[in-house]
Protein backbone atom coordinates (compact mmCIF):
# COMPACT_ATOMS: atom_id res chain seq x y z
CA UNK A 1 0.00 0.00 0.00
CA UNK A 2 1.12 3.56 -0.70
CA UNK A 3 2.56 5.07 2.47
CA UNK A 4 1.22 8.23 4.02
CA UNK A 5 4.48 10.05 3.27
CA UNK A 6 4.36 8.94 -0.38
CA UNK A 7 0.78 10.20 -0.58
CA UNK A 8 1.74 13.57 0.92
CA UNK A 9 4.66 13.87 -1.50
CA UNK A 10 2.35 13.02 -4.41
CA UNK A 11 -0.20 15.62 -3.26
CA UNK A 12 2.45 18.33 -2.85
CA UNK A 13 3.96 17.57 -6.25
CA UNK A 14 0.71 18.69 -7.91
CA UNK A 15 -0.95 20.99 -5.36
CA UNK A 16 0.55 24.22 -4.05
CA UNK A 17 -2.44 26.31 -3.00
CA UNK A 18 -3.15 26.55 0.72
CA UNK A 19 -6.92 26.30 0.28
CA UNK A 20 -6.79 23.08 -1.72
CA UNK A 21 -4.15 21.59 0.61
CA UNK A 22 -6.39 22.37 3.58
CA UNK A 23 -9.35 20.81 1.77
CA UNK A 24 -7.33 17.65 1.18
CA UNK A 25 -6.39 17.51 4.87
CA UNK A 26 -9.94 18.12 6.10
CA UNK A 27 -11.36 15.37 3.89
CA UNK A 28 -8.55 13.08 5.03
CA UNK A 29 -9.39 13.70 8.69
CA UNK A 30 -13.11 13.10 8.21
CA UNK A 31 -12.47 9.96 6.15
CA UNK A 32 -10.10 8.57 8.81
CA UNK A 33 -12.69 9.20 11.52
CA UNK A 34 -15.42 7.46 9.52
CA UNK A 35 -13.11 4.51 8.83
CA UNK A 36 -12.52 4.14 12.55
CA UNK A 37 -16.24 4.34 13.27
CA UNK A 38 -17.05 1.75 10.58
CA UNK A 39 -14.19 -0.68 11.25
CA UNK A 40 -12.44 0.12 7.97
CA UNK A 41 -8.78 0.89 7.22
CA UNK A 42 -8.05 4.37 8.53
CA UNK A 43 -4.89 4.58 6.47
CA UNK A 44 -6.63 3.64 3.21
CA UNK A 45 -9.59 5.92 3.83
CA UNK A 46 -7.38 8.80 4.98
CA UNK A 47 -5.05 8.57 2.00
CA UNK A 48 -8.03 8.39 -0.35
CA UNK A 49 -9.39 11.59 1.18
CA UNK A 50 -5.98 13.25 1.06
CA UNK A 51 -5.45 12.48 -2.63
CA UNK A 52 -8.97 12.84 -4.06
CA UNK A 53 -8.27 16.28 -5.58
CA UNK A 54 -4.47 15.98 -5.85
CA UNK A 55 -4.43 16.64 -9.60
CA UNK A 56 -7.13 19.34 -9.63
CA UNK A 57 -4.80 22.35 -9.48
CA UNK A 58 -2.13 21.11 -11.91
CA UNK A 59 -4.44 19.28 -14.34
CA UNK A 60 -7.94 20.77 -14.00
CA UNK A 61 -9.05 19.54 -17.43
CA UNK A 62 -7.90 15.99 -16.67
CA UNK A 63 -9.11 15.74 -13.05
CA UNK A 64 -9.30 13.10 -11.58
CA UNK A 65 -7.69 10.98 -14.30
CA UNK A 66 -4.09 11.91 -13.49
CA UNK A 67 -4.23 10.90 -9.82
CA UNK A 68 -6.40 7.88 -10.64
CA UNK A 69 -3.82 6.70 -13.18
CA UNK A 70 -0.95 7.18 -10.75
CA UNK A 71 -2.73 5.20 -8.07
CA UNK A 72 -3.56 2.40 -10.52
CA UNK A 73 0.12 2.22 -11.52
CA UNK A 74 0.88 1.63 -7.82
CA UNK A 75 -1.73 -1.12 -7.57
CA UNK A 76 -4.13 0.99 -5.49
CA UNK A 77 -7.29 0.08 -7.40
CA UNK A 78 -9.75 0.63 -4.53
CA UNK A 79 -8.47 4.15 -3.87
CA UNK A 80 -8.32 4.90 -7.59
CA UNK A 81 -11.91 3.76 -8.10
CA UNK A 82 -13.21 5.78 -5.15
CA UNK A 83 -11.47 8.91 -6.45
CA UNK A 84 -12.79 8.30 -9.97
CA UNK A 85 -16.30 8.18 -8.47
CA UNK A 86 -16.25 11.18 -6.14
CA UNK A 87 -18.62 13.18 -8.35
CA UNK A 88 -21.90 11.53 -9.37
CA UNK A 89 -22.06 13.22 -12.75
CA UNK A 90 -18.96 11.26 -13.87
CA UNK A 91 -21.17 8.17 -14.03
CA UNK A 92 -18.82 5.84 -12.15
CA UNK A 93 -20.61 3.20 -10.04
CA UNK A 94 -20.41 3.20 -6.25
CA UNK A 95 -19.31 -0.33 -5.40
CA UNK A 96 -17.80 0.00 -1.94
CA UNK A 97 -18.26 1.82 1.33
CA UNK A 98 -15.03 3.70 0.50
CA UNK A 99 -16.56 4.98 -2.77
CA UNK A 100 -19.69 6.15 -0.97
CA UNK A 101 -17.75 7.60 1.97
CA UNK A 102 -15.58 9.80 -0.22
CA UNK A 103 -18.59 11.10 -2.13
CA UNK A 104 -20.40 11.84 1.14
CA UNK A 105 -17.44 13.58 2.77
CA UNK A 106 -15.84 15.62 -0.01
CA UNK A 107 -18.32 18.35 -0.95
CA UNK A 108 -19.91 18.59 2.49
CA UNK A 109 -16.61 18.88 4.37
CA UNK A 110 -15.66 21.77 2.12
CA UNK A 111 -19.02 23.39 2.78
CA UNK A 112 -18.66 23.02 6.57
CA UNK A 113 -15.25 24.71 6.36
CA UNK A 114 -16.81 27.55 4.33
CA UNK A 115 -19.49 27.96 7.01
CA UNK A 116 -16.85 28.09 9.74
CA UNK A 117 -14.74 30.66 7.91
CA UNK A 118 -17.47 33.30 7.96
CA UNK A 119 -18.04 33.02 11.71
CA UNK A 120 -15.91 34.88 14.31
CA UNK A 121 -16.01 31.75 16.48
CA UNK A 122 -15.26 29.56 13.45
CA UNK A 123 -15.96 25.89 14.33
CA UNK A 124 -16.65 26.64 17.99
CA UNK A 125 -20.40 26.47 18.51
CA UNK A 126 -21.13 25.64 14.86
CA UNK A 127 -24.19 23.39 14.69
CA UNK A 128 -25.63 21.20 11.97
CA UNK A 129 -28.82 23.27 11.80
CA UNK A 130 -26.77 26.36 10.85
CA UNK A 131 -24.99 24.42 8.11
CA UNK A 132 -28.31 23.11 6.80
CA UNK A 133 -29.67 26.67 6.76
CA UNK A 134 -26.61 27.81 4.75
CA UNK A 135 -27.15 24.92 2.32
CA UNK A 136 -30.50 26.53 1.53
CA UNK A 137 -28.81 29.81 0.61
CA UNK A 138 -27.78 29.23 -2.98
CA UNK A 139 -25.58 32.36 -3.02
CA UNK A 140 -23.43 31.11 -0.12
CA UNK A 141 -20.50 28.96 -1.34
CA UNK A 142 -22.30 28.90 -4.68
CA UNK A 143 -19.82 26.46 -6.23
CA UNK A 144 -20.88 23.71 -3.80
CA UNK A 145 -23.23 21.31 -5.55
CA UNK A 146 -26.11 20.85 -3.10
CA UNK A 147 -27.36 17.81 -5.03
CA UNK A 148 -23.97 16.11 -4.50
CA UNK A 149 -24.25 16.78 -0.77
CA UNK A 150 -27.72 15.21 -0.66
CA UNK A 151 -26.83 12.23 -2.87
CA UNK A 152 -23.62 11.62 -0.95
CA UNK A 153 -25.42 11.30 2.37
CA UNK A 154 -28.11 9.10 0.82
CA UNK A 155 -25.64 6.72 -0.85
CA UNK A 156 -23.52 6.54 2.32
CA UNK A 157 -26.66 5.78 4.32
CA UNK A 158 -26.31 8.59 6.84
CA UNK A 159 -28.76 11.17 8.10
CA UNK A 160 -27.64 14.56 6.78
CA UNK A 161 -27.88 16.35 10.13
CA UNK A 162 -25.93 13.60 11.93
CA UNK A 163 -23.37 13.55 9.12
CA UNK A 164 -22.81 17.30 9.41
CA UNK A 165 -22.49 17.02 13.20
CA UNK A 166 -19.90 14.26 12.77
CA UNK A 167 -17.87 16.36 10.32
CA UNK A 168 -17.98 19.39 12.62
CA UNK A 169 -16.83 17.29 15.60
CA UNK A 170 -13.90 15.84 13.65
CA UNK A 171 -12.79 19.24 12.39
CA UNK A 172 -13.10 20.79 15.86
CA UNK A 173 -10.49 18.32 17.11
CA UNK A 174 -8.05 19.80 14.58
CA UNK A 175 -9.17 23.43 14.51
CA UNK A 176 -5.75 24.87 15.39
CA UNK A 177 -3.92 22.93 12.65
CA UNK A 178 -6.65 23.85 10.15
CA UNK A 179 -6.57 27.51 11.23
CA UNK A 180 -10.26 27.33 12.10
CA UNK A 181 -10.01 28.37 15.72
CA UNK A 182 -12.02 31.31 17.06
CA UNK A 183 -10.69 34.71 16.03
CA UNK A 184 -9.45 36.95 18.81
CA UNK A 185 -11.47 40.09 19.21
CA UNK A 186 -9.65 43.41 19.38
CA UNK A 187 -10.58 45.73 22.26
From TrEMBL:
Q: Which UniProt keywords apply?
A: Hydrolase
Output the superkingdom of the source species: Bacteria
Q: Which GO terms describe its molecular function?
A: hydrolase activity
Q: Where is the signal peptide?
A: none
According to the entry, every stretch annotated as the HD domain falls at 21-92
Give the residue spans that cross the bilayer.
Answer: none
Family annotation (Gene3D superfamilies): Hypothetical protein af1432
PANTHER family linked: METAL DEPENDENT PHOSPHOHYDROLASE, METAL-DEPENDENT PHOSPHOHYDROLASE
> This chain belongs to which protein, by name?
Metal-dependent phosphohydrolase
Amino acid sequence: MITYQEAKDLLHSMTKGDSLLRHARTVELVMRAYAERLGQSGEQWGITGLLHDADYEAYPDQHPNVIVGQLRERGEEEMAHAISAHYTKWGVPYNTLLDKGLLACDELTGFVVACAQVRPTRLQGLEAKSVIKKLGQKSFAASVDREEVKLGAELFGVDLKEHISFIIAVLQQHQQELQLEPQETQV
